[in-house]
Amino acid sequence: MLDRITFDVLPGQILALLGPNGAGKSTLLKCIDGLLRPQKGCIELNGKPIHGLRRKTIARLMAYVPQTTGEIFPFKVIDMVFLGRYPHGNGHTGNKDLEKAFKALAWMGIEDLAMKDFGAISGGQQQKATIARAIAQEAEVLLLDEPTSNLDIRHQLEVMDLLRYLVKTNSLSAIITMHDLNLAARYADKVIMLENGKIVAAGDPVTALTPKTIASVYRVAVEVGSIRNKPHIIPLKPLTSNVQPRK
């Protein structure tokens, strides 16, 4: 249940949605994309409510990348990425669409997987392919639900560097749910911390990622230092724990 959530994201900005499991991060992304409809209030894009827009119209404006792909159909990777071009056409494959799909694969560094079965590649590679699909979609807003969750540290940095580059150079907006506070501090322009469907803290990473706020939301004691003028969070210990060490 989301309660009195209000915020905005400007072109060229990355917003990180933070909070423990069950805080409402994924639900909020689905509301923004129109997959769920809020009981009150509305989602606006460029000052206009998205309610009432056709799904194909919304898909031209916003690209949604879920945590998992769900049921995996017997698609080639290139076919999965090509789905991102559907909102722009009439169902027919054009040379321009294929070019953009292959370019998106190249952006993610997985063009060599184009003809592989999507279900046969690793979870991390599937994650990168779904992000490539969003890139091929050429939407104004990127909605990504834990896009680095299946990636090792190198590929996490590569993906976040690429997303930041795309957002800044193309004046896109990105809303990303994350668990890694340090990744959020490094890449996000703004962060929102959720707990039980409510906003607990919001602002730039320096303002929002404080020991007091993190302790309140995550029940963890931390130290917050600074690396390259970005907050760096060092977890110390849980404030409460139901886990008892074995004697």
Structural features, described:
The protein is built from nine helices and ten strands. The chain is of the alpha/beta class. The chain folds into two domains: 1-26 and 141-247, Rossmann fold; 68-139, no CATH class. The strands form three sheets. Strands 4-5-6-1-7-8 form a six-stranded mixed sheet, with helices on both faces. A two-stranded antiparallel ribbon has the order 2-3. The protein has a two-stranded antiparallel sheet with strand order 9-10. Helix 4 packs across helix 5 (123-137). The radius of gyration is 19 Å and the shape is globular. The model has no long low-confidence stretch (mean pLDDT 90).
Structural category = alpha/beta
How widely separated are the two ends? 40 Å
The proportion of strand residues reads 15-25%
Q: What's the total count of β strands? A: 10
Total separate domains: 2
Overall mean pLDDT score?
Answer: 90
> How are the strands of the largest sheet arranged?
4-5-6-1-7-8
CATH fold descriptor of the largest domain: Rossmann fold
Helix segment count? 9
Low-confidence stretches: none
CATH class of the largest domain: Alpha Beta
Level of helix content?
A: 25-40%
CATH architecture level-2 label of the largest domain: 3-Layer(aba) Sandwich
Q: Strand-and-helix sequence, N→C?
A: EHEEHEHHHEHEHEEHHEE
Largest sheet: 6 strands, mixed
Radius of gyration over C-alpha positions, nearest whole angstrom: 19 Å
Which of globular, elongated, flat, extended, rod-shaped describes the shape? globular
The fourth-level CATH homologous superfamily of the largest domain is P-loop containing nucleotide triphosphate hydrolases
